[in-house]
Amino acid sequence: MTPLATAATQSLSAPVVQSVDWLAIAPPTIAALVGMLILVADLFVPERRKPLLGYAAIAGLALSVLSLVPLRKGDRSTFCLTTAPDACSYTADHFALVIQFLVLGGALLTALLSVTETKDRLPAGEYWFLLLSSAAGAALLPASRDLATLVVALEVASLPAFALVGMRRGDRMSSESALKFFLSSVTATAVMLLGVSFVYATTGTLHLTQVATRLDDVPGQLETLAQAGVALTLVGFAFKTAAVPFHFWVPDTYVGAPLPVAAYLSVVGKAVGFSGLILVTVIAFPAYADVWGPAMAVLAALTMTVGNVAAVRQSATRAWSAVRLLAWSSVAQAGYILVPIAAAAYSSDDQIGSTVAYALMYAIVNLGAFAVVALVARTKPLNRIADYRGLYATRPVTALVMGFFLLCLAGLPPGIIGLFAKVTVFSAAVDAGLGWLAVVMGVNVVIALYYYLQWTAVLFRAPEGAPEAAVEGAPERHRAPALVTATIAITAVAGILLSGWPQPVLRFAAVNLF
Question: In this predicted model, which residue has the larger pLDDT, 220 or 321?
Fold first, then answer.
């Protein structure tokens, strides 16, 4: 009898009633419920009261973050099989909680950036519903422990993001970006679903721990099917992480999307992809580590190289060059984050902590950089890098904070948080015996210094001409939106604190999160 037939027979003969731990599933559930309430409330709230929907969304996301506190022990599971209590569909372990904190915190900061946008340009009710729905799916994914729940969570996080990208009605660039994002993502999802079906046909189960056990002893006639299933499943998650060659959608999508949405995709979207990739490689497919390990290493090298080379080529005077540079920078950063995943195939699961630590540090500084970009875009809508020239003369604090964020991304003092993150990832490669990958990473860090330092220097240059500078600088002295200022302040304070005291994040690089 095949594994699939055996599983079917067991499922028919056993009870299927599952326990539900409502506290464990509270973080994504709260975000989803608040999103539904906002969608309904939008029908009855008068136009002048629409900003209240944004504050309700912020409160809901803050409550979702707070609901992680009772789960900090990381020992809760739910939706478990009655025939195999150790096989659960939802597990709130330390890995899940850290990623949930990252995605919900990132969504909360995105919401702070978005309040002004919804007042001026975007339909409030739809926007907040889509953002909270995507955040709920992103929070569900790291706790998912079966392939079906993983796919559902991935799509719940992704489908609202397509609409968010195209939210600027009447904007051709926004619509085109959303269409590109949608078509490429749907193709990747179809490939991933085909891979999941192959894995299920081979093992007869969808639970990650059971998949790992049964892949250790695959019958010879199913070996090729299992290998194809593993490869196709990884392709789907590689797209979500913007790994080369699945990165082509990133620059146009970031430029066409509202800036808060671009910030959300750069952090939360990537966290979703990386957490899914970690779950399927480390938990479900360890038997094929000799296959996906080298593949992840090559992907990491290609991704960081292509991202950095493309970022170097951005012209400072090109329209939206600031957003494009951050987009290509996020591709390069994805390459660094892939390094510990590849290292886990050669050493141990402990390497995954390096990916989590790097993702947390990257999320803080990248959201801060996008917050500054959103602030500058209010007076410089083309958002060219050249538009940042003389920012120190008009907004000295903003210029200093932006310089700090760029130095963090580069890994240079005083951006110590970025330096620690890169050293952590570099150590993971060396410890796993991937010396060649560590060399490639070192070369790419040097390449990245060029464009990060170039942008930093622009911030402190004198304006091109005194009369012209006075005309262009006057609008920039207008009062900045309070919530945008709050986002910049929160990320700056967090970056400075972690630069001096990185242990809360770096400790995840030294422990097994699962």
Answer: 321
Q: Which amino acid is at 495?
A: G
Q: What is the dihedral of CA 269, 271, 276, 282, to 10 degrees?
A: 160
- Residues facing 76 on adjacent strands: 92
Helix (H) or strand (E) holding 277: helix 270-278
Helix, strand, coil % in the chain, rounded to nearest 5: 75, 5, 20
- The number of C-alpha atoms within 13 Å of 325 and in the hemisphere containing its C-beta is 29
Q: Which helix (H) or strand (E) holds 152?
A: helix 147-165
d(CA 424, CA 363): 16
Asked if residue 325 lies in contact with residue 237, where contact means CB atoms within 8 angstroms, the answer is: no
Between CA 25 and CA 123 the distance in angstroms is: 30
Taking only the tens place, the pLDDT of each residue in 307-317 is 999 999 988 88
Q: What is the pLDDT of residue 474?
A: 40
Report the 10 Å Cβ neighbour count for 178. Answer: 23
Selection from 178-187, 366-375, 480-489 with the highest mean pLDDT: 366-375
Instruction: Return d(Cα 339, Cα 53) in angstroms, integer.
Output: 41
**Whole-prediction pTM value?**
0.90
Measured between alpha carbons, how far is 60 from 30 in angstroms, rounded to an integer?
7
Amino acid at 232: L
- pLDDT digit string (tens) for 247-280? 888 888 998 888 999 999 999 888 888 999 999 9
Distances (CA, A) of 364 to 9, 110, 127, 200, 308: 49, 12, 23, 38, 20
With H, G, I as helix, E, B as strand and everything else as coil, classify residue 207.
strand
- 322 vs 371: CA distance, rounded Å: 12
Exposed (0-12), middle (13-18) or buried (19+): which is 485, by Cβ within 10 Å? middle
Distance CA 81, CA 85 (A): 5
pLDDT at position 367 over 90: yes
Residue 5's pLDDT band, with cuts at 50, 70 and 90, is low
Q: Tell me the C-alpha distance between 411 and 445, whole Å.
A: 8
